[in-house]
Amino acid sequence: MFKTVAELVELAERENKKMAQIMIEQEVQISGKSKQDIMDNMAKAYRVMEKAVQRGINENIKSHSSLTGGDAKKLHRYIQQGNVLSGIHVLEAVMGAMATNEVNAAMGTICATPTAGSAGIVPGCLFAMAEKLQPSYEDKLYFLFTAGAIGYVIANNAFIAGATGGCQAETGSATAMAAAAIVEMAGGTPRQSAHALSIALQNMLGLVCDPVAGLVEVPCVKRNAIGASIAMVAADMALAGIEFIIPADEVIEAMYRIGKSMPHALKETALGGLAATPTGKALERKIFGVELVKE
Amino acid sequence: MNYRSVFDIIGPIMIGPSSSHTAGAARIGRAARRIFGLKPDSAYITFYGSFAKTYKGHGTDIAIVGGLLDLDTYDEGIVRSLELAKAQGIDVHIQTSEEDADHPNTAKIELSNGEQWLEIVGISIGGGSVEITSVNGFKLRLSGHHPALLVLHEDKYGMIAQVANVLSRHKLNIGHMEVARKAKGSEALMAIETDQSMGEDVLAEIKAIPSILAVTKLDP
Asked: Does a structural domain hold residue B172?
């Protein structure tokens, strides 16, 4: 059983296993279900993720508020033109992340990873990595178990909801989860996964949850996009042997303390940040006919 | 450890847009329906905290009503739940409260149908996970992750042992248990989470114990 990243890394190293395998074994123990049942369950989540990304790229997604939709499609076209600046796989991860989150905003079916507001980052990175590395189906599911293992530690030692910890708890957790899973899929060590997690999460610290009109759309879709790019770059850094001096568990604890001291107005109440800008307030009045949220 | 399973993190599969405000709300609604055990003809739903501020944009109202219709987090019926409830003759009232709740995402649901009445309070703790924190005024903490038994009984000696005996005879392991009462000697509530699901025979046996007033099963 693991409760911390340090314990997870130690178990994986000692038993010479992937973090995904450690997570699966723990799940077998806790749930009393067979390994096959657990793999089948994850396969269901995988199919939902795949479908959401395909919808986001191919269909004309528009949310009820009309604030979001269609950006993943734009990026898809841009990538196909072949003249991208920041690297094709990074942009593919960004595209998948936006596609998923746009489908979420439009009340489509998604798989929360770890939440719905941050549902794009993990699948975005997974499908970009699958394109690049052509892993086996089992390895694709392992990606989700490894991401889940990191999310499990974060959720139990800090938080994953914007209302409790700000956006750092949602997209920050998702970015850290994805970074660790990318490293594992690319053949890195558990220790490198932990460094990728730390590098990713330190760059999301302090991120507030300030949804315009209280909707999971702006800035959520684009925070998922950039979260995916941070996860990819953090993973590359860790694979290059770059380390982060603060241990992963302490970075998670720092995130927790920051979230605790964050004012209420910046935790999904739509009272502060981008939600409180003149344009944010005007959009709120336009969408709901009235100013929904008052101090 | 609030989150026990990897599927609390990778999941739930759900209708967007918010796992805490949409999927969590659906699960609170569904828990209320399961505890109530029948179709209500009226539902008063009160939102507190962040739920009160942002429920319209997150579809928290349609999600919680979807749950009351016994729909799962991923059921596309959730999008039309208000119409579906109306068609089924459920009178739904949504209100918000400025009162301070212990958790930012808190909902109170009052259900009735003729003589039957239930009030539960649930909180959505993030990522679709929820806790039921009060049933008919009895304070408790139920995660909804495990099969659970709610046993309403007279507050007197030996009740816990008798219920535990039945579970033991059926080889059901208790993972978590809480007892709550409003006042000494009045009614009390046992909330028992078990590792395995319980059959109707177990419920019937518990119901037959003298001084047991009501037994409800809650499956995750």
From this structure: yes
